Amino acid sequence: MSDSPRLLVFAKAPLPNTAKTRLIPALGARGAAALAEKMLHHTLRECTAAAIGPVELCVAPDRDHPYWRECTLPADIEVSDQGEGDLGQRLWRAAARTTTTGEPVLLLGTDCPQLTAARLRAAAAALQEADAVMHPARDGGYTLLGLNRVESALFEGIAWSTAAVARQTRERLVQCGMRSIQLETLTDIDEPEDLEALPADWGFAG
Question: Cα separation of 25 and 66, whole Å?
């Protein structure tokens, strides 16, 4: 197995009234979409700067959507479709096809500006010492899940978008006999109160 993980970044097109809708009361539809777009590009820059492995952007709705056709991405970013199904099914497919080629995987979204290049490098290093690594999120989810091998149980029957996600995933890791390392808890930007965790110079405020 390669020591270099593939970074799979999951993102949906940052469009008004579809992206970061829980932030609309604070930022308006266009402001929420603008923040989603800024976080998308920030995440890709940090993943590239980490220089720990190939970066693949897994998009929704799909690569043929006008936003993705017109979006300017770094030249070395691979783009793939998330496909159909719930979040667990989409994560499972992407992770499984990656690990079957012998690559470890780091799964992440674009909602956590605190996932810096330094933290990504640290997560990749930790993954060399365990079967899995996780950065939990303050809301009970996780901002990053790194895996050396994939089990379908890690993604089936999880109460996605609830405060139980990280706990349930940790339980599944134990059930699958996978040794995991828990990294520091970070903040996903989902609710208006999360905006205070953004870099001060980004200019977004509730």
Answer: 26
Sign of CA dihedral 187, 192, 198, 200: negative
Cα separation of 98 and 115, whole Å? 21
- So what's the pLDDT on residue 3? 77
Give every CB contact of residue 144 below 8 A, 6+ residues apart in sequence.
106, 107, 108, 112, 115, 120, 123, 133, 134, 135, 183
User: Domains, the chain, ranges and CATH?
Assistant: 6-192 (3.90.550.10)
Q: For 111-151, what is each residue's pLDDT tens digit?
A: 999 999 999 999 999 999 999 999 999 999 999 999 999 99
pLDDT at 119: 98
In the chain, the amino acid numbered 144 is L
Which of these, 175, 150, 171, 149, lies nearest to 159 by C-alpha position? 171
Q: Give the distance from CA 154 to its chain's centroid.
A: 15
